[in-house]
Amino acid sequence: xxxxxxxxxxxxxxxxxxxxxxxxxxxxxxxxxxxxxxxxxxxxxxxxxxxxxxxxxxxxxxxxxxxxxxxxxxxxxxxxxxxxxxxxxxxxxxxxxxxxxxxxxxxxxxxxxxxxxxxxxxxxxxxxxxxxxxxxxxxxxxxxxxxxxxxxxxxxxxxxxxxxxxxxxxxxxxxxxxxxxxxxxxxxxxxxxxxxxxxxxxxxxxxxxxxxxxxxxxxxxxxxxxxxxxxxxxxxxxxxxxxxxxxxxxxxxxxxxxxxxxxxxxxxxxxxxxxxxxxxxxxxxxxxxxxxxxxxxxxxxxxxxxx
Length: 307
What we know:
Layout: E1 3-8, E2 21-26, H1 66-88, H2 96-109, E3 113-114, E4 127-130, E5 133-135, E6 149-158, E7 161-170, H3 176-194, H4 203-214, E8 219-220, E9 226-227, E10 238-239, E11 256-259, E12 262-264, E13 270-272, E14 279-281, E15 287-289, E16 292-296, E17 301-303
Antiparallel strand pairs: 1-2, 3-6, 4-6, 5-14, 6-7, 8-12, 9-10, 11-16, 12-15, 13-14, 16-17
Helix pairs in contact: 1-2, 3-4
C-alpha cells in the first residue's frame, strides 16, 4: 500500500513551469532479506578486484586496442542477453532476488563472470533498482508489485574485459507518467550516444541529455556518472550526463565508455541506505535509467552491449 505524500511543484517542475502543490502516491522502498551469495564455477576467470578491499586498481587505457574491442563485443553481447533474460521475469510477485538468479545463471552458462559480484563487497550478480531507487539496488526478497518501475543493471567480465548495460522495465500495469519517464530516459541516452564524435569534448554528451530532460521537467542525476570501461570495470574516464563546460576531455577514436543517464520525476538529489550501496531520491520520486557500453569509431559510436 502506498502512502500519500505532499509534493511541492517547485521540487517537481513541469514542462510548462506550473507552480503550486500536487499530490502523488509514493510506495517507499525498504530493504528486504538477501539470499546467500551465489556460486560461480571455479573454471570461470574472475576480475582481480573480487573480494579485495578498497577501490579497483585501474590500469586500463582510455583508448582500447582493436583486439580489446573485439573481446568487449562478446562480453557486451552476453551482458545484454543476460539483462534481457532477467527483464522477461519482471512481473508481480517475482522477487528481485529471483531476477538476480536468472541473470547469474545465464552469465555463468556463457562462461562469463558477473562483474558486480564481489566488487567492493557488493553481494549480488546484478543491480535491481526499483521506483525511487536510482541505482545500485541489491536484489532481495521483496516481491515486485503491479506498477513498479524496475531497473536492471548487468555487467559481464569475460576474456579480461567488461561489458556494462542497464534497462528499465515496467512491472504489470505502469502509470503513464512512469511510462513517459522510461521512454524519455532511453531517448536521452540515445541522443547522448548520437552526439559522440571524435574531436568533440565529452561535455557534449551531458549537454544534449540535460537539454532534452529539461523539456519535461526531469531531474538529471549528477552524483553517478558514465565511466571508462575495458579491462577495468571503471577506469578514470568520467562521462557526465548534465552540462558541465569544464569537462573538456576530447573524445578520441577507440575510446570505450558507458553512457547511462538517470532521470528523475522530481529532484535529482539523493542519499544512500545503510547498506552502503542503495541510492534513493531524497524526495522519493521515481527514477529511470538506460545504459550502453560504446566504442568510439571514426564516424561516431558503436554500441558494444548489443545482441
